[in-house]
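User: My instructor asked us to take a sequence, write out its structure as tokens, and then describe one feature of it. I'm not sure where to start. Here is the sequence I was given:
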Amino acid sequence: MSTDETSRFVRLQVELVVEVSDPGDLTGAALAHIAGDDFMPDEERGHAESSVRADGAEALAYLIDPADLVKGVPGVELAQASWSSEGIDDYDPDSAEWDLEDDGEDESDGEEAGSPARV
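Assistant: Let's start with the prediction itself. The structure tokens for your sequence are:
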């Protein structure tokens, strides 16, 4: 396939499961991030602070920016990004249900997928 026939746009899907080892540190970092955002309106700031105090997943969402994944990558400009986070109570790293390697998609179309990593 020539360059003229391929899309200039690529959807990069990333799924992470993280363990929050210190909820207090996470909440504190999110609150500091919100406090340091000079462009956030006061009404939104109050709502954001309340959300991160109530939910660690919200705190994490305020600290993670998917634009950082491609910042500085030569030849790439971010076109659109969205992200969300949610708490999961039933996570079992040994369960096939949580196996990130098998996402049910067929890679036989010639596209390469990145290798999942456990850290």
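For the description part of your assignment, you could build on this observation: Residues 106-113, 115-119 have pLDDT under 50 and may be disordered. Try explaining in your own words what that tells you about the chain.
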